[in-house]
Amino acid sequence: MARKSEDPKDSKDDLSIVANDARKSAALQWRAVWKVEDAERAEQEKRDAAEKAASDQRMKKHEDAAIARAKVEEKEHGEQQAKQREDVFLAEEGDLV
């Protein structure tokens, strides 16, 4: 008599186990991909933050230099105006004497 090699239920259970293992494997692979993507994103954010900090620092340096130049120009302009007023005053005084 020929004997059946496997019970159809056992075969179905084996396929179910294989399918579950495949799903678990796929899920683990996706988790690994997501972790790598998260790490890459974090690294990019760090680089972006460092670049922004450097840019902000350069901008601040330029602003400080512009403010310093403006103060010097303002001082020179004030001194020039004072000299002109003094010259006008002395000229008027010379006319009166």
Explain what you see.
The structure is a single chain. With 97 residues, the chain is an all-alpha fold. It has one domain. It is built from 1 helix and no strands. The relative contact order is 0.04. The model has no long low-confidence stretch (mean pLDDT 89).
What's the pLDDT, averaged over the residues?
A: 89
In terms of quaternary structure, the protein is single chain
Please compute the radius of gyration using only Cα atoms. 42 Å
Domain module count: 1
> What sequence of helices (H) and strands (E) makes up the elements?
H
E-strand count: 0
Distance between the termini: 148 Å
Approximate helicity band: over 70%
Low-confidence stretches: none
Q: What is the approximate shape?
A: rod-shaped
Number of helices: 1
Provide a quick synopsis of the model:
Residues 1-15, 39-88 have a biased composition (Basic and acidic residues). This protein is an all-alpha fold and 97 residues long.
